[in-house]
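Appendix B: a complete holo record

For completeness, this appendix reproduces one full record from the ligand-bound portion of the collection. The bound molecule is flavin-adenine dinucleotide. The inputs are the chain sequence and the ligand SMILES; the output is the full three-dimensional arrangement of the complex, encoded as structure tokens. No fields have been trimmed.
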Amino acid sequence: MGYDVVVVGGGHAGLEAAWAAAALGVRVALVTVNPERIGTMPCNPAVGGPGKSQLVAEVVALGGLMGRAADATAIHTRMLNRSKGPAVQSLRVQVDRDLYALKAQEILAERPIEVLRGEVAALWVEGGKLLGVRTVDGRGIPAKAVVVAGGTFLGGVVWYGRRSRPAGRQGEPPARFLSQSLKAVGHTLRRFKTGTPPRIRADSVDFERLEVVPPEVPPGSFTGNPGPFAAKLPTWQTRTTERTHRLIRENLHLSPLYAGDIVGIGPRYCPSIEDKVVRFADKESHLLFVEPDGLATSEVYLQGFSSSLPPELQEEMVRSLPGFERAVIQRYAYAVEYDSLDPTELTRGLQSRFLPGLFAAGQVNGTSGYEEAAAQGLLAGLNAARYALGLPEVHLPRESGYIGVLVDDLVGRGTDEPYRMMTSRVELRLLCRADNADERLIPLAVAWGLRSKEDLARVEAKYRRVAEELRRLEALRIEGVSGLQWLRRPENTYEALLERFPPPSPLAPEEAYQVEVRAKYAGYIERQERLREKMRDLEAHPIPEGLDFPKVPGLSREAVEKLSRLRPRTVAEAARVPGIRDSDLTALLVHLRRLA
Ligand SMILES: Cc1cc2nc3c(=O)[nH]c(=O)nc-3n(C[C@H](O)[C@H](O)[C@H](O)COP(=O)(O)OP(=O)(O)OC[C@H]3O[C@@H](n4cnc5c(N)ncnc54)[C@H](O)[C@@H]3O)c2cc1C
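The structure of the chain with flavin-adenine dinucleotide bound, as generated:
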């Protein structure tokens, strides 16, 4: 039987891709080596955090499943950066690792998605046309569109010290052949690497010696529905010691990275403990987070302690940490090296520039993290379904939020290390907050068939009430100024205002929050709105597809080289290419005006 969309991979990108494609009513199959492991979290058992929680909020707004699975299986939640502004406040939800995967599989089963067991060996291409995929046993699976979401599995090699073996991650075989097929289509592959910390047997840890971080009560959630155990468990903190650092420094030659065995480039913002000790040599100690792996599991996860040093040494390193003097390692830390695509060879809808109907999402596009993978999976799955239906590709512009920035950065600039989302990458972060993702994206989700019209009606009603309340505050007089001006004073709160001047009907807590943010940060919000106009203005200057950049008078040599390679579609995209100067943009604008 033929499919409209075949998704290769059951990780966080593959899950969202299949889920989004199925929302459009097309026939979807998800092919994965091991269906029981769909939704596995190979690294930390947590969703969200700075930059990432905003991605999850957008995935939720666009009808994705990650937020639902995380909320249902949460065991501890925390709002990070609470003392900072609303732009950077970020929810982090610690989940039960096993339950998360089961919940994700349960949600997936709500839509008619066929899960097939198999290793995809190649794209099935005839006469330059994509016909589907072929598995290692020679089976052909016909499909109009294919989403490759192979994660760390393509050409995967895991490293424990200087010993390596082919694997996609611990205990799972690599995808041995798919890389060749992607290369044959014309894609460039690079070697990236990432790593994970050791898991420790919980009953071997002296928790009395650790600093406790209690869960927040009431718990936070991505969907407004925290699960039954969301405030159940604490997490803990410990620190590296002088002995830990000495052990690492004295044994760096045993690290495959420092010995030069690993050629792949690792994530700068998620460095191994070896990297931290070497790069920040003057730092005496590094903070580590000790996180439970689940409600009933016997393991704790040592966040911040990822390593590729040999297992014997890991024992000593772990035992040098306060509270871990008698620790028993259940699973050793390791690094994984894998093939990843150059994302500049994709469109903004995550489609291959070389083979129509081929899409790619997740770690395979050069990113790192579950949330980054989920966000891309959703977009790629949506566009794969649209391709199968003969509809044009859609994308999220940069100014629409975090997913827009993620894709724009990947496709427009590329990345030479595993890309991780951060709030600082988003110019309009005060406009594109996690709390207003519903307002920004639900209208698009409804237009694209990812959510229902009732959802749109609900969100419109919510923001109508917010607007009405803002108008009421504008008209209110308090201490000689309007209610809005009064609220802008740092010492005043909306809660205090409500006590004195309650509205005709009370607002829901999430509506009241919107009112307070909009009133308190009005000045900054206006400034960002002006910046958005400027971005849109540059966006409104398209660059003709075949423009011969060497013939644009006044462009620097660097600009000619980079713009010819990256082929930005608008002046705004050209402006974001690193190394492009204002003088290059002026030259480009003058030239475009002349052409017009
Ligand atoms: C060791 C390790 C360390 C990590 N460290 C970090 C970190 O420090 N920070 C961070 O943010 N993230 C880290 N991650 C990354 C995080 O796990 C990924 O970003 C995320 O899981 C990517 O999701 P994905 O869907 O792209 O791929 P994955 O979750 O890797 O899923 C890939 C899926 O594709 C399937 N598959 C692959 N090839 C084929 C094929 N040919 N045929 C059929 N099925 C196939 C696999 O079976 C799997 O189901 C780490 C991952 C690993 C393995």
